[in-house]
Structures are given as structure tokens and as C-alpha cells.
Amino acid sequence: MVRVRASLSQLPAYVPGRKLPGAIVLASNESPHGLLPGVAGTLAEAAGGVSRYPDLDATDLVQALAAHHEVDPERIAVGAGSSEVCGQLLHTVVSPADEVVFGWRSFEAYPILTAVAGGTAVKVPLREHTLDLDAMAKAITDRTRLVFVCNPNNPTSTALGERELLDFADRVPRDVLIVVDEAYREYADPSLVPDALALLGDRPNVVVLRTFSKAYGLAGLRVGYCIAQPGLVSQVRKTQVPFSVSALAQRAAVLALGEGAEVARRAALTVAERDRVTRRLRELGHDVPDSHSNFVWLPLADDSADFAAHCLDGRVVVRPFLGEGVRVTIGLPEENDALLALATAWRG
Ligand SMILES: *Cc1c(COP(=O)(O)O)cnc(C)c1O
């Protein structure tokens, strides 16, 4: 028998949204609007080049991101989705048995990637569906190397404000890396939710994580990136699986970055729908927290499985977290109508 690492047997596998042919899928926080117009045409053309390896350094993409964020290219590292970049950051700073602090529940990849990197996860319970930064700061010990701050938080959709983030960053020791995961940045109101790059980006122990998987509509192509100080970034780059970001993904990401106006237009449609869905779910008696992302959280506790099964019967796929709640991605208006009809009929 091959001896497998003991830490892996305890580890839950990542649960992807269910694939059900013909169903409405509101389970994985993808954009419902499909490929951006400027991306679609070029992809077919670029596909012809995939018999060759991509540019290892993703030079064009890194340049485009640097220009977009007005930072030096040396401050950017890319990966196959921000999930890979999360893993890279862990591999950069975590040695066996080092601790990694994050709120719970939060992005389900954090505990998996932490264990794979050999670290010990320290999960800090949420307070009122929101990251409890005070408790997270108190959970930091001499063994802590990294803290994930998911803002807005997946799956609860809540966000932290400027004052809280600044106070937290001031409390975290300088040798502990703070990773602010802003996968849903484009759906947040900038007057309520700070941009971590602007707020904390100059601090040596802060990394800001962004992705092309959500508002940019490229979940299936796998591109994400982080912005940090050059000394750290040069180490993070060493931990990337070579060539993990395909030429197709690099090209699509550059083109998508050039479509800022369309990305913003689509995000605004999603935000309007999100607020409509939230209002209706509250009318139905659900205690839905204010969402700053492209999904809403139904804290149904022990009813979560039943609600998800009811939706599945109506051919709408949502994402239950058993015993906790159900995450519902905001789709197109008619998809959201289908969800709301099911929610209305549930135990009605
Ligand atoms: C969806 C998501 C990501 C993005 O993952 P990719 O690997 O870039 O597709 C990262 N963080 C959080 C919190 C997410 O919800």
C-alpha cells in the first residue's frame, strides 16, 4: 500500500456546483452574461496556437495588469485562477505545521489549499455572517504565517469597511502575510467597500488577490493574479506550476481587461438584480444579509438541504452548505425569477 499523507484523509474534497443538463445553474458565482464581446472572436483565432507552450512569464498580461492598476509589473504574479495563486502564496510562506488563519465559513478552497501546503488551518467563526476581524487578530500566534481576508466574503456575501480593515492590518504582526481576496470586487460599492490595493497595497505584508473568473466571465480559462511588493512577488512566481496559465487564457485576460466599460455595465445589471432578489427573499421572511457580491446568502441552517433539493426539483441548481445556509448566484432576470418562484412555493 502506498503511504498517503495523513493530513489528506481528513480533508474534504472541493464541492463544485452540480452540472445538470438543461438546468438553471446558480451555484458557482459565474457571470451569467457569457464571454465579453471583445474576447469571443479572438479566442477561436488564438486556439490555433495551442500546440506551442505559452509565454512562461505571461509578459503581455502582466504588462496590461500593471497599466490597469498603475503599479510596476514586478508587483504582479499570475496563476491558473486565483485559487492557484492562493496555493502559491501558501507555498511561499508556510512550512509544515505553520498556522493559517481565516474566517469560517469562507472560501472552501482555503482549508484544502492550506492542508495541501502542509499548514494547519485555524478557522475563526463568523459573527452575524461577517468576518470577525477582532477574533481573527486574536487567533494569530507565533506560528501564524498567513491570514486570508475574503472581502466580500464567499459564501455569506458580506463585506468589511475601511476602518475595520485598517485597524486589522495595524494589529497583524509585520511578518504575517495578509491576503485580501477580492474575487467579487466588481460587484461592491466602492463607497462602502474599500479597494484593498488603494488602502493597504503599499504595506509589505499585504497581498491583494483578484480573478478573471467572476465579473470578467473567464471562469473556465483559469486566470487570476495577486499584487504585492516586488520582493515577495519574485518568490511567489517561483511557486507557480510552469505554464499553468495557457496562451488562450493570457490572451483572453488581456482583451477582457480592455473591456472595462462592458464589465461595469454587466456588473451593474447583476447588482440591480441582486438587490431585487434580496428584497423579495426578505419579503418571504428570509434573513438575507446585505450582499456586496454577485450572490446572496440564505441562512437556512438545518433547512438548507431541503431548500436546495426543492430548487433542484424545479431544475434550479443552488449551492447548499449543509446545516449552515444556501448560496444563490445572481443570474439573468428570468433565471432569478425561476429561483424566486421556487422560493415562494417552498413550504408555501
Ligand atoms: C470564485 C473565487 C475565487 C476565484 O477562483 P478562481 O480560481 O480564480 O476561479 C477566489 N476567491 C474566492 C473567495 C472566490 O469565491
Task: Describe the SSE topology.
Elements: H1 6-9, E1 24-25, H2 37-47, H3 59-69, E2 76-79, H4 81-93, E3 99-104, H5 109-116, E4 120-125, H6 133-138, E5 144-150, H7 162-171, E6 177-181, H8 196-200, E7 206-211, E8 224-227, H9 230-238, H10 247-257, H11 260-283, E9 295-298, H12 304-313, E10 316-317, E11 319-321, E12 325-329, H13 333-345
Parallel strand pairs: 1-10, 3-4, 3-5, 5-6, 6-7
Antiparallel strand pairs: 2-8, 7-8, 9-12, 11-12
Helix pairs in contact: 2-10, 3-10, 4-5, 4-9, 11-13
The protein binds pyridoxal-5'-phosphate.
Residues 29, 81-83, 107, 150, 154, 181, 183, 211, 213-214, 219, 224 line the site of pyridoxal-5'-phosphate.
